[in-house]
Amino acid sequence: MTAKTAPSKAAAGNPVIVIPARMASSRLPGKPLADICGVPMIVQVWRRASESGLGRVVIAAAEIEVAEAVRAAGGEAVMTDPDLPSGSDRVWAALQEIDPDGTHEIIINVQGDLPTLDPALIRLAYEALTRPGADISTLAAEISDETERTNPNVVKAVTTFNAQGMGRALYFTRATAPWGEGPLYHHIGLYGYRRSALARFVQLPPSPLELREKLEQLRALEAGMSIEVALVDTVPLGVDTPADLEKARAALAPSAPS
Fold first, then answer.
1. Residue 151 neighbours by CB under 8 Å, 6+ apart
2. For the chain, what are the domain ranges?
3. What are the C-alpha distances in Å from 84 to residues 80, 93, 126, 211, 225?
């Protein structure tokens, strides 16, 4: 696991990391409180976010037991309406609660089921968002498993990366795209938002392509917003099933003494 890093000076835009979490999960009920090496999963995610050294970290909790678990570990949590339709809406609701004066200009949305996330990826999402013209940022990794190229559960980011590993998103799709020879990129659902972009995004109705592909980020593209994509080496482990949970436990287990 990447060691905690602290920036030498305050990051531009006064970023805040918001982690939406709710207990309802069809494949892994009670997921945020699942035990991983003696602590709830949401606490492990909070730790990874804190280790980024980027700034304030807040859990946007849909249930009081999630908030209490975070606070017991020394973290900050706020309650959000359990009926909110998406993680983005939960992040926005939390932001209104913790920062009504608008001091945080950059918001990083980290999923609450990434307990093994490399903190450096959070900083990379921030760096992508600071590029000129970016409204939103996200991450992608080149697909190396041939079966993922045609798997509709693996969302593809369609873009061209420059020498610095940055690209502007043209589209996101569950289809195998683009056509022809060349790499395909697995989209990673970690987002950075300019505050004004997030405010606009949550006020927009679901778009036609969003509804068709079942991909929320297409709402932003259809509305003319720009999404900067940073290329990373690997896709972080998302915990969606009991098998994923065991993988996370193994990855974070303390090393056995020699």
1. none
2. 13-115, 118-193+204-235
3. 8, 9, 25, 17, 23
What residue type is 52 in one-letter code?
A: S
Buried b (16+ CB within 10 A) or exposed e, 204-239: eeebebbeebebbbbbbbeeebbbbbbbbeebbbbb
What are the two backbone dihedrals, phi and then psi, of residue 51, each rounded to the nearest 5 degrees?
-65, -15
Fold agreement between 13-115 and 118-193+204-235: yes
Q: Which amino acid is at 122?
A: I
* pLDDT tens for each residue of 59-98: 999 999 999 999 999 999 999 999 999 999 999 999 999 9
Angle, helices 242-252 vs 41-51, to 10°: value is 50
- Single pTM value for the model: 0.92
Determine the distance from the C-alpha atom of residue 255 to the mean position of all C-alpha atoms in its chain, rounded to a whole number.
28
Distance CA 115, CA 21 (A): 13
118-193+204-235 belongs to CATH 3.90.550.10: yes
CA distance 146 to 153: 14
173-208: pLDDT as tens digits:
999 999 999 999 999 999 999 999 999 999 999 999
Name the nearest CA neighbour of 232 among 87, 115, 128, 114.
Answer: 128
Question: What are 117-150's pLDDT values in tens digits?
Answer: 999 999 999 999 999 999 999 999 999 999 999 9
Question: Are 108 and 126 within 8 A, CB to CB?
Answer: yes
Instruction: Enter the tokens of residue 224.
Output: 């003319």
Residue 39: its H or E element = strand 39-40
Beta bridge partner(s), residue 194:
106
Q: Are the C-beta atoms of residues 138 and 188 closer than 8 Å to each other?
A: yes
The CATH class that applies to domain 13-115 reads: alpha beta
